[in-house]
Amino acid sequence: MSDPFTALLTRTEMLLQRLERLLSNAPAEPNWHTAIAFRWRGTDQPERLRAIAHPKTLKLADILCIDRQKTIIDRNSRPFIRGRPANNVLLWGARGTGKSSLIKALLNEYAASGLRMIEVDRQHLAELPDLLELLETREEKFIL
Hints:
- By secondary structure, the chain is an alpha/beta fold.
- It has one domain (28-143).
- It has helices at 4-23, 67-81, 99-110, 128-135, and strands spanning 37-40, 49-51, 115-120, 141-143.
């Protein structure tokens, strides 16, 4: 049986370790195992990357009238997800033409294969190198 003083020291040390983690300046990372979509909040935030709790559950088959675009982005994404060469994709067009819906449907199609999505607002585009540094050791494949 240990003496009460040793038990007190052990508990105090555990408490101090917890406090150090809480008070440290190190940014918190999201739980990579429970989320497929994230939002970049900026390098000045303690929680730079936050999981999106309930991302849209669109399917590629749900998106109509842009079959050519769906085929092209799907054909390009499959090798990317497998770690093979793929082209970068830039979607552009007027509001309401399905750009975001197409990405969300692609995410749902390939999330089980390790595809993840990170939303980056335009005011944070200058911070992309910081985000890419955070992702470089991850094995998942990311759409930004």
